[in-house]
Each structure stands twice: as structure tokens, then as C-alpha cells.
Amino acid sequence: MTSNRPSLPTPGSTGSDLSSSTSSNNSDNNQIPNLHSLQNSSSQLSIKSNSWRASVNFGSKGVSVADSEGFSISRREINEDDARLVYVNDPLKTNETFEFCGNSIRTGKYSVFTFLPRNLFEQFHRVAYMYFLIIAILNQLPQLAVFGRGASILPLASVLFVTAVKDAYEDWRRHKADKIENNRLSSVLVNDQFQHKRSKDIQVGEIVKVSADETIPCDIVVLCTSDPTGVAYVQTINLDGESNLKTRYAKQETLSRVPGKDVISGLIKCEKPNRNIYGFQANMEVDGKRVSLGPSNIILRGCVIKNTDWAVGVAVYAGRETKAMLNNSGAPSKRSRLETHMNREIILLSFFLVTLCIIVSACAGFWLRRHQDELDIMPFYRRKDYSKEQVENYNYYGLGMEIFFSFLMSVIVFQIMIPISLYISMELVRVGQAYFMIRDDKMFDAASNTRFQCRALNINEDLGQIKYVFSDKTGTLTENKMEFQFASISGVDYSGEKIEFYGEQGGYNIQVDGQVWRPKMKVQVDSKLLKLSKTRNDTKSSKEIYDFFLALAACNTIVPIVVNTSNPNEKLIDYQGESPDEQALVYAAAAYGFMLIERTSGHIVIDIQGERQRFNVLGMHEFDSDRKRMSVILGYPDSTVKVFVKGADTTMFKVIDESLNLSVVKSTENHLHSYSSIGLRTLVVGMRALSIAEFDTWQTSYEIASTALMGRAGLLRKVAVNIENNLSLLGASAIEDRLQKGVPEAIESLRKAGIKVWVLTGDKQETAISIGYSSKLLTSKMMQIIINNNSKMSCKKSLEDALVTSRKLINVTRASEDDASSVALIIDGTSLVYILDSELEEQLFELASKCAVVLCCRVAPLQKAGIVALIKNRTDDMTLAIGDGANDVSMIQMADVGVGISGQEGRQAVMASDFAMGQFRFLVPLMLVHGHWNYQRMAYMILYNFYRNALFVFILFWYVLYTGFTLTTSITEWSSVLYSVIYTAIPTIVVGILDKDLSRKSLMTYPQLYGSGQRKESYNAKLFWVTMVDTLWQSVVVFFIPLLAFWESDIDSSSLGDLWTLAVVFIVNIHLAMDVIRWTWISHASIWGSIIATCICVIIIDAIPALPGYWAIFNLASSGLFWICLLGILIASMIPRFIVKMFMQHCKPCDRQIAREAEKFQNAMEITRNGEIEMNLPHR
Amino acid sequence: MDHKNSKKPTYSRFSQQELPAWKPILTPGWAIASFITIGTLFIPIGLLALSASDNVVEISDRYDEVCVPDDYSSKAESYIQNPDVKKTCIRTIKVPKKLVAPIFVYYQLENFYQNHRRYVKSRSNKQLRDPKAEDDTHDCFPKSKTKDGKPIVPCGLIAWSLFNDTYKLSTRGKEISINKKGIAWKSDRKAKFGSNVYPKNFQKEGLIGGATLDEQIPLSEQEDLIVWMRTAALPKFRKLYGKIETDIEAHDSIKVEIENNYNTYKFGGRKKLVLSTTTWIGGKNDFVGMAYIGVGGICLFMGINFILLYVFRPRRLGDPSYLSWNRHPIA
Questions:
Q1: At which positions is ATP bound (chain A) (predicted)?
Q2: pTM above 0.90?
């Protein structure tokens, strides 16, 4: 699924057999074998969590899981042949047997010497250029020399030259960047002392020291860090764009050794360099002990060390073998639908070409045969050469060969029937269109300061034909800026007014050394709860509130980072973590006076209502997708020990001791229900005090588990399950995942445009449905069909039932013409497991295509792709997938058009996408406006290019019929060459970039106009044939009017050729001018400029005495017949087109036509008053 | 947001695709107006062209078959190739209308492919212009060099096949002088054919293709050659032979004395002598006039049709009820 795209590895496709082995290890209640296992393994492999979106996030699952990964791998030997051996601190030995790649990088493709051959080689990879080349080579054979040498090579040479200059410039810039990168200094251990070394001189096996805020020069395995527990925090923004901090760990065995003081030696055996940035598989032999290394032990080139004074590691991959460089591939390439269809028509055109060539060569054969006896002395053939003693044939190779040669020659003469220049024009046009999309200030997101990005340059026009939009929910429809909204603490709902603290002195702050520290983000707080949380007495409710907020502040993996502000007396605390939910909770706790200010691996410091308290973190059970909760064991300053647990309601209520307070549990459940019904994400918090005995038991088993060499993850989970029980319920939190601005309006517009919007989310059903309502995807009038099943049989049954109901309903609505009561299908991931890849798919497709809305909840990343494929494989409709996270990558790659939201979550979706933008609502201008324009422009341009080239070829062909089928062209060879280069090239490109059939305002107000692209109105087989018939007519007019007018006259072939040249260029440009809708000064300049340029070129060509046509144009222009012919050709060739166009416009006006008229006539007043500038989007 | 760091695209009418533009729409009014205008413009032009063509007096006489003596009628080729047979042939042509000077004398060849690929290529433009380039004959095969390797000037098939029939015209016993000066383009005489290039080794050996050239006269003054070397566009073509600068009265008969030398019998080519006057549209040509009247007629007809269409089936421009979603409401 993803293999055909050279992009970042997707979590779903990480390490092949790796995933299966670990998943069977780790997920014991693995009821859904194939999809779930993949999901699990991917979430474990990747440092960044995926599955937290499958429910609420409980924390990061960095280390332990990944570690256990390492252990399970260590049992599988790394194959000796595939391994890379790195001797720690011994680069000489490391590089002894195999010279590993040095650390100098070269992104530049060429050197001075290799530029010419390599660049040419690369350019000729394009089919278009090969065609040019073959034709040019054919033309060099003396028997086939139709054009002169110069004329035949010029077009190819000019294209090659332009591309080469462009490539050379880009490469020069890359070389410059490389130089800077290679000469950066880093600290390397040489003779037990750290010395500065240029980055390019670092070798594999050397020990590198990196300080805070420094960029890692190569991929290193962490040996030790400034933190005694061996933790290093890294920012991977350069690698995957995620701005949050990630933790990397040094191994126990090495973390105590400080290089320079202690001797470090060892052998690392790791896998061959690969591009998977989320996987690393190795083991290290230190002091005879064998330790396994996983992805959490390696820091990759390009990452930045944060919040850690220094880290020391050994280089394992350097230079171009680093994972960052291996991933340095360009944007993925897709081919647009229009281009696929165009290629079909190009095959037709080549069929025309072959037909013309066969006709010419067959006729030539007949002619030669008929005149066989006369050829010898025929004055215009003279087969025999009498000048030598031996009378022999001159330039005649027998009838068969002559026919063959005339076939090849006709291919050369008619070569532009295949519009090769079209491919180049299309590329230019797409660049131009991309420029306008990027520069569109209506698609600029001020909040994240991101412009629209065009990553794929070849599917612009697909945006105008989309029928299905598959959208992720979190981060795409919603902002993914979690905001703490409500809390339910021991059965009391605090969801009152929340404006109290907002804006007043910027919220809660603390004093540290005379400085004011405050949280970076402000949170709205509930006044009642705030008051309660501030009063500290021994009442039960006050204690519960204390515990609740302590749990929020402590039970997480958030790292507080103190940031300076412009005010020296004020500092901000930035909570860095992998999950936005946790961030929201910690910010909330801080706002209520429980401010987390320090975290190390052993303790945390929380400022509680101005009083700083230090808690020991005795243990932490990270989140995993089976438990769906996390817990932390805190040692209080008074040496009591408590376990705090937070997690999803489904799993939390199982471990809560309901007997403690049944009514609280019941009311909390009610609150949870009401929270999630308005689309909030909920978490349940519980705690339990541990007795000394309990703690000791836990501690021993925890220590055994966390040092276990095998199956560590499983053991740790067991330990966690043992301690996470009989909890007392503290309360529940509700976090709002706010809808992005303009989402409901955008969805409304898309729906009006006839686009089906499907939402695929990992969230739970209630949340999904509530977001559905708030985004106006679902309306109360809709009938909802919900499919939640646990077996294949029940799935089948509910699908069948649903089909029956939907059919009934649709029949009813059809009868009553009531469009409001449509069907919405809501289906969950579990059911999809049974449906996708089985015979039930067909039924699901049938059902889904009847539904106005489809909501899929709790779906795994691969299922998202599966759903896209469901539509893509069964219909001809175009699909677009939009998402922001790593879990959307597979869907984005599967869809015809992938759009990434460049928001806060990682950049993986963006990296895999074809287009990236800041907000969901930009989809509307992107598709309805730019997509529509691009489609119309490109469709017109393709048809026009077919017409333009075919017209010229037909004219040449007609003339060949009057030359004894000998492929003489009366049009000079220079004009033939310049025809598609100078005479007609620029207007079509300008129109392809600039013409707008409708204004932005009309397209936004009437989204239905988008339908023209979906219905393929501007490019289809019918239009192609109509265009070809028109072409034929025009060629007949252009050719035969002069022919008959100058029949039996003393016209010479150069003069007639000039007349044809001018006539064809004039009508080709006038034809375009008739179809231009918006005449800006640029269109005027290009069209009239081309005509003038043609005249100038013809004059110049005819002013060269060495050419046979010398002065022909001047003699011609002095005759009245010439002008009469030209005028007659222009009018006669356009008349059929004009009549058909008028007739269609009047009797069968298309929507675009009506809208254009409405734009001009009905709003004439308005337009003149406001001008088009102020016609902003109706949806803000 | 910091203003300097903002990546917000700078606004310009160009980048927002909002350049001022003229947005013409083909309204019924415009369409009818253009049809009627074209119609009313084209029909008079057509009539003018027809009348001009009508004023042209053109007399043509095909003589290739008639000029073969009866005893050679079945073997015309051996007649034309036999140097001993007298080639003179007398024809009489009637003048139907007064020919007003200047009268152009053409010879017309048919079925002669002067645009044949082998033929058009077989020349050296350099050699014709520049005496130093007389060896530039590589394109001229098979007529580039003599057997002993001397370059032929002018080389190539085109020059070799130079037309060599001659005409003597007389009426009422008086010879009509044919002016053969100034029949070639001035530009050709000035720049394309050198005034210091003289014919060399031309038609001296091997197969004789046509006329010989006086080696004392530079190429720039060999106007027959210059005319001949401006190769015709079509296989049926005329070449200017000369101009008659006196009027010829109607109903006169012209006696033409033809030296019938040029061999077209081999490939079934035809030869004609044409006398013609000219007007602003050139020679006799009814096609242009007819075409203009035809096109103009169609335009008028379509204009009327569209008027009827708009009267009987009017449609308000921009009427939203024609939009597809208003015609068939969708869900």
C-alpha cells in the first residue's frame, strides 16, 4: 500500500517480521489478528504514540515498551552478514574491515566533471525527451534528413539547456549548504580528550559529545548523559517536525562512565543503515555483558539536545548513511487523473500519426510503382546518375526501402502530432498554479504562521474533481489544542462559569528567587473550584480536590521547561510532552495552584499553593494500549506512598473499588456521559494509598521486571495490573478538543459541492458523533445507522438490515422530494475488521454510497487506508484524504490526493501529503476555487495543445499529397521548429496559469459549480473528438483556401508556405483568444505578442538570402490575394466553432456559463462598487 | 505575531489573481451583430473579387500533344529526343476580349513536381550567390560535377531541368515583342544570384535536361533561370515567360511560333502557353469571390437564424433557474 512511495516509513509498515513477533508477544487479548496487531506493533515501535488517539492518551510509552522491544529482538540474532560492527571509541578498528561512510554529506548531485553526463542522463529519463532524441537521431541519417541539422536539434537542445541551467543552479545551492553543514564543529573524543573536529571528519566508532541546544552531527548511540539516570531530552523537529521533547536513554551499563575519565570500550552490533527513523535494532557488548539497544537509545542526526547539559554517544551511522539523510527524499509523485486520461488520448493521437504515415508511405509506394519506368530521367526525380562511367542508381534503395524511408520521414515530419511540448508546458503551468496557491492569502494560516504548501507538483488539477473527502478528526476538524473544561471531583460536577481567572494577572504564578514564574498557557478556571482548591482544611472534599489535582500534576510524563521572556523578572513554564491531553491537564492543575516545576527521573517538584513540595517518583507504569491507563507511584515527603492512576473510563471503572462509594461512582459516570455527549474527551482519575507491605512487594517485582532481559514489557504490565486495583475514585476530567475555525461552514460548502465527507477517527463513538453534530456533518433530521459488532455474522446481519432500511428510506425521500432526511452511517473499527478484506466489503460499499455521511470511529491507521481503498477501487470517483497525524499517513498516501494539516502534531502527515495547509477550512478555497480553476485550465490547455499540434500536422499532411508524397514542406523548417516553441507556446501557458472561468466569489457562493469537475465537463472523450473534428475542418480551410486561390498561378512554394504559416499561427491564436475568459494585460500581451513575434520571425527568416524563401513574404504581402486569403481563412475556419458555441450557450447553457453571465450582468452594480478585491470568502 | 517573521504572502493583485480584466461574454447581441457584420462585409468583397476576376482576360493553349508531328504521335519521346527533327510548331489563338497591357506570358506545366523532395533539395544557394563557393555542390547530386570533377555552375537538378521552349508571337503579320527583362523578382536578382557568378560546365555532358546558359552573362541576369529556380508550390504551375507591353485587340488572332524542346512526354506532363492580364487579385480566379460570397451568405443566414432563436426561445442571461441544481434538486 505504501511501498510505491518513497517517503518516510509509516508506522504501519515498520520492520516486517519485527512487528509480528512483538505483537504476538505483547497483545495477549488479541482478538483481531491482522489489523490490530499491526496497529499495536506500530505504536510500540514508534517513539511517537499512535494509539493514544484510539482513545484518550494516558501518557507516553517511550522507554519501557521500546526497551522490551529490544529484548524481544535480542533473542532474534542480528544476522552476522547484515550486521554492522562498531567498536566503541575505536574508529580505526571499526573501519578496518569495511570502510564505513564518513560523516561528510553531499546532497549536491553533481560535481564539475560529472555534471554534463549525469545531468543529461537524468534528463533523458523522461519519455518526452527520448522521443525528441530519437526523432532528432533519425533525422541525422542522410536518407531521412527532412530538416537541416540545426533545425532538428534546436528544440531539444534548448529544452535540455534550460533544464540544465536550472539543475546547475539548484545544485550549486545544495553544495553551499553542504559546505556549511560539513564544516560545523563538534566535540569528539581523541586520545581521551574531547577536541573540536569538523563535522565531516567524524568517523563511525568515535565518541561524540553534544551539549544542550546543539545539533547532533551523526546518528549516535547514547552512552551517558549529564543526568545521573542517563536520560537525554531531544527535539526531533528537523527530522519529523514534532516540536515536543522526546526522551532517550543511556544504558545502565554505560551511564556511569564519563568519557575522558573512564575507559569505554565495547562492540555494538547493529543493523545496516536504513531509513526507518522509528526503528533501531542492535546490541552492545560491554564488559562481556550483552545489552540490547532499541530506538530509545539512539539519537539521530539533525535532532537537538534540550534540557540536558550534555550527552555522549558513539557514532554508529555517519554521513549519507544516517537515517536523516536516507530519508532525504523528495515529495512523492502521483499522476493526475487528467494526465492519465490525456495519455489515453495521446495513444489515440499516435494512432493518428501512424495512420497518416502509413497513408503517405503507401501512396509514395504506389506513385513510385506507377512511375517506375520514368524515374530514371524524370527531371524532378533522376534516379540514374549518368555523370559516372557506370550508370548507377542515385539515392534509390529499391521500392521497399523507399517506402520504409518515407514512413520514417513522415514520422519525422509529423512528429509534433504527439504534443511533447505539452508535457513541458504542463510542468510550467503547474508551477505557476502552485505559485498562486501558495501565495493565496486566503489559505495562509496566521495562527501557525504557515503558508499553503504544494508538495506534489503534478496533481493540481485533481483538486477540481474530488468526490470524496476522508477527514481525520483530531487535529484536522478539531484544533488539537486541548483545553481543560470541566472536572467532576468525587461526584461533584464543576462545570460552572469559567471566566473568573481569565485575563486577571495572567493566572496563577509563583515566586522563585524574586522572579515570577507562570505557566505558558492560560486556562479558564471554574471560580467555585478555584476557591475550594485554595482553601486547605481537612474537610473531605478539600482533600479530594487536593488529591485530584495532585494526580493531574504528577501522573504524567510532562517535562516542565523554564523559558525566558522579554521581562527579566518573569519566566514562563512550558510543559513539554508527547500528549496534548496531558499538557492540558498539567496546565489545568497549574492554574488551580498545583504547578509542576521540575521533573527528573527520580523526583518531581510541585508548587502547591505557593508551597514547594518534592515527591519521589518511585515507579511509573507507562500507558499501553491494553490497559489504557497509566500510573505513577509517589513517595510523599512524609514517606507515605500512593499510587495515582488515570485512564479511559472503560478500563478505569474495572479497577475502581465501587464498594467504597457507589453513589460517587454513579454520579461520575453520569457526568462522564454528559461530558462526552458534548464532544469532550474524558479521563478518570483514581488513587490508592499503599501500605508498606504492599509497596515492598510491588517494588521487588517492579525491579525484577524492569531489569528482566526477556519479556520485560509483559512482566511490567503484570506488575502494573497487580497494583492498579481497588482504587478509590478521585474524579474525572473533561478536555475540550475544540473545532477549528470555520469547520461547520467548510463542511457545509463541501456537501453543497456534491462532495461526500467521511470522518475517520480513532476516537470513541460518542465523541465522534458529538463532533459530527457540532461540525454540522450530522443533523438531527438524519437517520443514523450504527454498526457495532463483534463478529462477522452479526456484521453481515446488521449490514443487510441497514441496506434494507436505507433503501426504504431513500425510496421514501425520493417520493417526497425531501432532501433533509438522509442516512448517516456510523461504524466502528471492530466491525470494520470483519468487513474490510472480506466479501462484506461489497455490501458496506453499497450501503456507504447510499449514505450522505459516514463516520468511522475507533479505526486503526491501516483501516483508514482500507476505507479509502474501498471507494477508490470500486468507483471512478476521486478521493481526497486530509489528516494531520502519523496515523493518517497511510490514508493520505492511499487517496488520490493527500492533504496534510501542518499543525501542532508531527509533520509526518505533511511529509506524506501532496498538499499541506494550516486549517481544515482552507479545503474550501483549495478545492472549490483553486481546484476548479486548475482543472478547467489544465483541461483546456490539454485539448488546445492537441488541437494546435494536430492542426499543423494536418496542414503538412495535405501538402504532402500534392508533392508526389515526398514529404516536402512548403513551410520552412525553421517555422516548423519554432511553431511550438515561439509562435504558439506562450499564450497557452499564460492562459493555463492565469485564466479564470469564474470569480472566487461565485465559486464560493455556489459550491455546486464544483460539479463541473466531478462530471469531467471540461475534458472527456467527446470533447476530444469534437476538437479533432474542428481541427480537421480548420486544417482543410487553412490549406485549401490558399491552394484553390493560387491554383494555376505562378506562386512559389516559399510564398505559399509563408501564407500557410501565418494563417495557421493566426487562427491558432485567435482560437485561443475566443476561449479566453478573463483578458488581463498579460493575456493580451502574450496572444497578440505571439502573433507579432511570428510575423517578425517570418520576416527575419525571409530576409536570409541563403534560404530558398528569400524575400517571399514581401512579394506576397504586396498582392491583394494574400490579404483576402488570410481574412477568409480566419473567418471561415472559426465559423463552425462559433456557431456551435453560440448554440450550446443559448440552448444548453452549462452551470459555469450561467454563473459567468450572472457575474457580469446581475451583479454588475455590485462588482463595480466593490471591486473583486473585497470579495472575500463568505466563510471568514 | 511578529510582523517580520510572518510568512503571510504579501498582497498584490497579481498574486491573488485579481488583476483587472476585461471579461467579454458572447451575448446574443454580439453574436448576431458579428454574423451580420461579417455577412455584409464578405458578400461585397466577394462580388468585388468576382468582378475583378471577370475583368481578367486569360487565354491558354495546350500545345504539348498538338505539337508532336503525326508520324511521331505514338512515340512522342523519340520525337523530342531526336535532335534532328525540327521542333517548331505553329499555333493560332483567338483573342476573345481586348488584352490590355501589360499582358503576361506564362508557360504552364502540369504534372511536373517542382516540389518533389529530391528536386527541391538539388541546388546550392551558396554557389548561386558567391563565385568563391562554386565547389559547394554537395546537395546537387546527381548534377554536381562533370566527369572530370569540375563543378557545374549552376549545379543541381533544378537548374539542369531549365525550361527551354520558346515562343514568338505575332498578330496581323506583325511580331509582338515579348519583354523578358524584369520577369524575375528584384530581390532574387539583387541578392540571391550573383552578378559575378557565371555559368560553367553547364549542360555540357551527359543527359541534357533543358536550356543552356550563355556563359558570358552572369546569373543575376539570367532571368529565365531565376524564375525557374523559384520552385513552384504545386505540381500544376505557371512561370512567367515575359511581358507584352502593347494591347491586343479583341477578335485578333495571334500566331504563336513555338520551339517545342522541353521533354514532358516522358512522365505525362502537359505544357500550356498562357496569356493573361492581371487585376488586384492577380490572375483569373473565381474561387475567392465565390468563397467570400459563400461565407458571407452563411453568416447572414446564421445571423437571421439566431435572431429567430432569440425571439422564439429567449433566455435571460444569468438566469439562475437554468443552473443544474435548480433544475434537478440534489440531496
A1: 472-474, 582, 623, 646, 681, 761-763, 858, 864, 887-888
A2: no
